[in-house]
Amino acid sequence: MEKNLITKNELDSILIGYVPKRYLTQKEAVRYTGTSAGTLNDWIKKGLRVIIFEENSRPKYDVKDIDEFMEKHKTK
Q: According to the lineage, what is the superkingdom (predicted)?
């Protein structure tokens, strides 16, 4: 069985140009949080901020806002 291994230098060269996405679509936000669209909509009702950059554009969700919301609403 052949294993596909990558060296640290190869990994570094791949990741050097990677810039994480800050503003997510609803589908991406659902995937990021591991929840459903319904849960995301509930979070919006509870204060998660939705961003509209241009009139008639799709809403976006800031990763920082999502992280802060999830941290604030953790159950112990």
A: Bacteria
